[in-house]
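ok so heres the complex, two chains, lmk if somethin looks off
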Amino acid sequence: MKKYLYGFQLFFLNSLQYRFNTVINLFFGNMSLLVTMFFWVLIFNGDFGKSLNGFTLSGMITYFVISNILSKFTLQGSGFYYTSMVKNGSLGSVLLKPYRLEWTVYFQQISTSITGLIPQLLFVLCVLPFISGFLTWNVSVWNILSMVMFIVIASITSHLLWSIFGFMAFWMEEATAVMWSLAVLLNMAMGMYIPLDFFPKGWLSVLEKLPFSAWGYLPSKIYLGLLSVEKQLQLLWIHLSWIVILLLLHRFIWKAGLKRFSSVGG
Amino acid sequence: MSIIQVEHVSKVYRVHEKPEGFRSAMKDLFQRRYIEKTAVDELNFSVEQGEIVGLLGENGAGKTTTLKMLTGILYPTAGKVTVAGYCPTERKKDFLKQISFVMGNKSDVNWDLPAVDTFRYQQLIYDVPEVEFSENVSYMAELLEVKHLLKTQLRRLSLGERMKMELINCFLYTPKVVFLDEPTLGLDLRSQIAIRTFLKKYRNDHKTTMMITSHYMDDIEETCDRVILLQKGQKTFDGDIAELKKPEMSFKEGILNLMGSGEKQK
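and the predicted structre for the whole thing:
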């Protein structure tokens, strides 16, 4: 475990090497969140008493603040890491390391998430005095505990699923266009553009059982107190099962892909 | 028993043939043509413990592909490879701890951090005890004259200095078998000499088995005990370096002669 944690630390240090980039990221990397909030204030006409699909204006703004923060734990980078490594052949050198590559990539991506999370939290703290009136404060021990469980599951399932997408590069060489298209679809399926409650009723019952809902939608709903404990436990088991399914799929596709790897570039 | 055993090994790549011109490129989107390219053809050889073997051949002769099959990065299309008693493609942890692969055109040391940080990471990955780590770094850094540069960000170093750091990184855990693919590529004469001196001294001190590919004949002449010549994926010569050092011609002329007669045979 020590080597994975050191890899995490190294990746973290790496991302702090460029101070200017970090500062710029702090100020401009979060502008989309403010735009989204403004957008929902317009939709609700500034009316705090109004409710849309179970969401009040403050609930909706809180939903987006939380899902934006939690989306950092969606390890999309794992997929892009594999595609670039396969494409430029540098996967060859990491294959020679006596470690579990999937764990190493997981910790590297978590490190990137935390590096991205710090400026985001700083930004939220800076704007908090101005937006605190728009937010719903619904903190309970169970909610926080349940959210943390879903965040851990989200980081694992997103890492596994995005890695599997990244393995497409073994067959396609250039898979980034497909990856970006998938990113848009998955952002929708995880409730990043709009809460899943806005989809037709039948869709919601399917979407909430898919791994993507844990990447943003479910933890935000749990925080807002809009999901019963019984429902949370039922979904927890489903999402834990996804880890097993994705792990098996990950191993199978990885082995098949390696046989096709041509390790280009010298 | 030989530490490296290669029996009837072949590697065939399936390559997409890219057509010329706009019309053909559009047609290619729907109907692709693939050709089979034999990179290594029925290769047989063995290497004894402590031997330094030079793998020679023109560009595209199959040298790097052979090294990549020996390290387990590539799966052979046919034949059997055994290194240190292991099948390389199984990538067993014990096997990976015994081999190292230095790639002249690819860096395994993190560009954004001082080399010593990568060495620490390598120490954890390969479970190198602290005393052995300090001794190894100090021994190699002195031999390669880079002790004062260990804490400098890698991107600020010259190509030769970076290559020396690469060597330290690859030899840090005292591997039994080291594969070096053009370790002096693009380096100035002083750095080339330093690296050759290092390799010879390291082998004498540790009885490490090495396989080297290089287009610089001095690298081969000064470090290797034996030479294997590859031409279009086939072995056309395998013998002691002394056989090629004759009074009537230089080593380079001997190699060129061999290449000529190899071509005729083929």
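quick notes: Chain B has a mean pLDDT of 89. thats all i got rn
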